Amino acid sequence: MNKCLGCGSILQNTNKDKLGYTPKTNINETKYCERCFKINNYNEKFITKLDNINEYLINEVNKKAKYVYFMIDFLNINNETLNTYKTIKCPKALIISKLDIIPKSLNKDKLTTYLKNTYQIKENIYYQSTKRNLNTKVLINNLEEQHIKECYILGYANSGKSNLINKINSLYNEDISKITTSSIPNTTIDFIELKINDHLTLIDSPGFNLNNVIYESNEYDLIERVNPKKYLKPLTYQTKDITSFTIEDKIRIDANSINSFTFYISNELNINRIFKNNESLTNLNKLELDIPDNSDLIIKSLGFINIKKACHLTIYTNNDNLYEIRNSIF
Ligand SMILES: Nc1nc2c(ncn2[C@@H]2O[C@H](COP(=O)(O)OP(=O)(O)O)[C@@H](O)[C@H]2O)c(=O)[nH]1
Ligand SMILES: [Mg+2]
Question: What's the CATH fold of domain 46-204?
């Protein structure tokens, strides 16, 4: 069975609507499926749904893997993503990816201590950026020092797994077949084994799936703006009394007291502040939350809002499971 080098799906030429399709009569004549070809050459965008992907990944990896790097990007650190990390049984390390977007004010040693304590992580935590090529070698050195010959790269959708593997591959090999990457989640369909050199094979994987109000929307333009292109600029708003915030007209957060809200989400997403009473989004589910002093309100896969003082919030949302509260990361 030939697999597409770009996404890992099994190549087939019988069903145009199924993954792995190629129009070639002889499958051996191509390395890539039509979908990867279109993403790579025409920048076409596809939204692909992968059923039961989380269970599939955990089962396969817990059966086969001897070592795992698990990638989570800075805006996606929460109980749900870290609980998934904890289900991986073999030796592993956590990679906080997209280091280039992490606010400079955040000290990495302190962040590590915070993450280890808050989420009970025992393993090493690395910070990495493919975009700026930061700490890529550190990851390889760690594998070499431990004589690890095969490493699975796991993580949530869009955490940067395929870009990292392409980067490492390009450091060791000149003429490489690239794994397909894009800003739309679920580009990688199945495991892809890539021999980097005689001592190391990396295995790319589809991303774990996170429920996300933005990804659910199927709006490409919006999905692309969730991932910050550069260093994140936190936005602070002071509230006096009744103030509503809306994010991309998908989520509404109502505050009712003097406070300070600092948003750590992509600067390309629209945050609106509305002072007067208004009816926008009040047709959605209403979620009431009590926030303790100096907490982060996490909006899964978008980021978080640092809230200075204890308060009560009313949130209008189409998904109650998107929110978590933690002690401030700062
Ligand atoms: N800012 C930033 N974006 C990144 C980095 N690595 C990947 N991305 C972006 O994240 C998105 C998903 O990347 P991809 O490697 O396909 O993620 P995967 O789904 O985990 O394989 C793409 O839009 C990339 O450009 C990084 O180091 N920094
Ligand atoms: Mg990928």
Answer: Rossmann fold (3.40.50)
